[in-house]
Amino acid sequence: MKILYWDTFAGISGDMALGSLIALGADPEKIIEQLHSIGLNEFRLDVRSRQVQGIQATDIDVVLLNELQLESDHSHEHEHEHEHEHEHEHEHEHKHEHEHSHEHDHSHKHDHSHNHNRFLPDIQKMILSGSLSDRSQKNALRVFDVLAEAEAKVHGTTLDKVHFHEVGAVDSLVDIVGTCIALDLLDIEEIRVSTLPWSKGFVQCAHGTLPLPAPATLMLLRGFKFRESGITGELITPTGASLMKALAQQSNFPEMVIQNVGYGSGKNDYGIPSLLRGVIGEV
User: Fold this and answer.
1) Which intervals carry biased composition (Basic and acidic residues) (predicted)?
2) Would you say 120 and 158 are in contact if contact means Cβ atoms under 8 Å apart?
3) DSSP label at 12?
4) Which one of 68, 126, 128, 131 counts the least CB within 10 Å of its CB?
């Protein structure tokens, strides 16, 4: 049996999770192709390697494109043979706009507000509409189910009335569904996670200023063991928490033969490496 162990010494977010799986060998082109099949087309997945305190990691950015940008990209492909060089520079410009993406579950550029207005049935319909494998579909649906349950309890509403704000945005959808696709591509049969780091502070979101860990995050992680990190700032996002709640169990490092190790990069600097370490092993 193939097991993935997420070492969450610096927390976990959706982009860190997906980055760790790409670092472990999941093909980003196949992930993008399957995301397109469910109607997620208005993005470009920027995947690059970078060093975090001397450790080589995979960093991802979900670059959102409006219709004008899509038309511009199309025209540049025909007008400039050196388009790839310009596109690379353009992605770096967007990279700075998304430096907060470890916290992007809570904040996002408002000019894409039409991507935030999604309810659970909308997302379920998307997931079932494409060419995802049965396992990818099942896992993605489970992640959004547990997230909806947590949001409903926090906000005192029902599942059908839960309004996904930030987590309904394209970048978070790419992170969550993309992670489920990557897990299937790597044929992961079980996920285990380490003890989680507790942090403090506040975060801005659609509902205003909220304490950390964010209420939905904490609701999701009932039953998980934490340790004090001494860090002020968001280490675990609702996206990261929902992935763990739906797909993983917490344990010590399992007795297994290690096959591969990969690191997904976060965007914050709290004095420790902003990394999620993924270890694949065989039991």
Assistant:
1) 72-108
2) no
3) B
4) 68
